[in-house]
Amino acid sequence: MACNKKSTTRLCNRSEMTSSNSALGKSLGKQLEESSKEGKGPVENRYSRHFDLPFAPRSQNVKGRKQRSLQSVSSKQHDPQNTVVPKLTRTLAPKGYSVQPIIPAAKAELLPVAQAMHGEDFAPRVKKLFDPEREAALDSLKTGVYIGWRCKEFKHDCIRVGKDSKCFCGHCLCDHAQCTGESVMVPCSMMRCECKAFVFVPSRPEEAGEFWLQRRPGYDPTTWRAKCKCKHSHEEHHPSGFRRCKHKGCGCSRFFSIFLCAACDRHWEEHETFFETAAVRKKAGMPYGEAYLPFHEFPELRNAVLTGSCDDNRKYEALSSGAFAIPDDSPTELALRLRGGFHQTRD
């Protein structure tokens, strides 16, 4: 009997719910009909998620609007111009704050970035890196002979060559015959050396763009040698002719560099060594005199190369003005005063 009572109560509850749903559906149907007769917009059925109203009437306006919305959506998906987001005419900022537009720099300021990265060590590192080129530039100002390593079509030197620069034969420039501004072939003066002409070759990893080698713990930069694609160094090739490899069993018939120039990213065999005077360089439109100094166009870097400090320009002033002005064509006794690295005045 208890089960029968429970079942009857459940049936009664269901009947009540269906009757209430039917009453609600009839009222909504009347609202829809009245709104359509009065000319008002159609009323959406917000209770369809909670109640089953299969008999609720739907006006033709609702159906037509849905079809138009679907057509507009499909047309927007196919038309890429309609999908572009319109630009905002104004920017939003919190109260009390002003908004400034972010404009990218037309030219990257590399020097401030490098100074911020290295701090106080920046200028001393620059000076150490360009010590050989600084000495080569000062020697050129002293003797009037400019020795540069560059590609033939360039109007600037990739590397300034000095007396301590290495030749392909493995000997320095000071171990070769005396050169002038009109020299073409400067043979080596060392015993049993087959070198017939001085040809510059990088002797430091920095000159070949391999800057990371200096960061290795215990690395000795004096052991670095410029290598060929056959994995043998320039000292293991013949210093003249096609510079074929000396190793037995190596099929290398010519030296092809495995490295690139740090200044122009081109191979060693694309460069040449030039001996010139200031007059020749002036006629060719190339830098000479004080313009031959490293980073002459950047005063801060130029000062760092000369003195190890970006703000100390005393040495450059001594070079470019007064009685110690840099000569254009003729050598002077300037180099004797430059070696001390201090400012002097003439009596």
From TrEMBL:
Segments of skewed composition (Basic and acidic residues): 31-52
Family matches, as Pfam families: FAM221
Residue numbers spanned by region Disordered: 1-88
Ranges of Polar residues composition bias in the record: 1-24, 69-84
Family in the record: Belongs to the FAM221 family.
Stated name of the protein: Protein FAM221B
